[in-house]
């Protein structure tokens, strides 16, 4: 592959004969090089093989921010993927890099943005949040800037967002709000404090997260001919009453109609997470 554009000594854009592009990073990889030169891949430390739309946006971003911010973001992404044992969508290289760079540039100006969903993020995305807290330590070590805890919440949401097919951040915020509101409906309907350390609570949160994603993307479980809806409704009448409140909430606030099949899963999870005798029997 040949050099198409040199951003600096450490970041360059390559292209092959078919027009496919790759952004590569490596210490001194662009030193004394020129456009159309062939690169030595033994010097490549990191490569971004991304779709053209993402590549264009990333190139534009690289031209606007310090290279150190790109390298810092890349280090954090690699660390997060390792700790969370997953692969993020390419879009995170744009969104997280842009966010971190902006946060670092506005901090000396005293501009600190509060994260309105910090409590919910800490509660519902505990693993991502813990990694994000460590990301703040990485940032401090590299830049000397100690960003506030609110930034850990924002970084955690970027990790969550990058697991959901690279959806936009607005939908990730919506998902978090939906999960929080539905959990509160269950808690207040039964007038109990849910055991957040239980395996049933963990299962319930996982179900809520996937459900919130499905409802925002109109991918609800379809109706089935041999549905268990009537059977489960009569077996768990209190869970059914609670699930109806959830159905009403979604219709009023999001104009989304919940299928009976989704209601079946809600009733089962609600029963599990609120029935203490059932929990004790499983332990």
Beta-strand residue fraction: 5-15%
Question: What portion of residues is helical?
Answer: 55-70%
**Mean pLDDT over the full residue set:** 84
**Fourth-level CATH superfamily of the largest domain:** PRD domain
Quantity of strands, as a count: 4
Structural class: alpha+beta
Largest sheet: 4 strands, antiparallel
Domain PRD: 64-169, 170-280
Organism: Paenibacillus silvae
Protein name: Transcription antiterminator BglG
Keywords: Repeat
State the main characteristics.
283 residues; alpha+beta; Transcription Regulation, Sacy, Chain A; PTS-regulatory domain, PRD; four-stranded antiparallel beta sheet; 4 strands; 60% helix; 7% strand; elongated
Describe this structure in words.
This protein has 283 residues and is α+β, with helices and mostly antiparallel strands. It has three domains: 2-49, CAT RNA-binding domain (Transcription Regulation, Sacy, Chain A, Roll); 67-166, PTS-regulatory domain, PRD (Orthogonal Bundle), CATH 1.10.1790; 170-282, PRD domain (PTS-regulatory domain, PRD, Orthogonal Bundle). It has twelve helices and four strands. A four-stranded antiparallel β-sheet has the order 1-2-3-4, with helices on one face. A hairpin with a 2-residue loop joins strand 1 (2-8) and strand 2 (11-15). Helix 1 packs parallel to helix 3 and helix 6 (149-163) crosses helix 7. Residues 64-169, 170-280 form the PRD domain. It comes from Paenibacillus silvae. Keywords: Repeat.
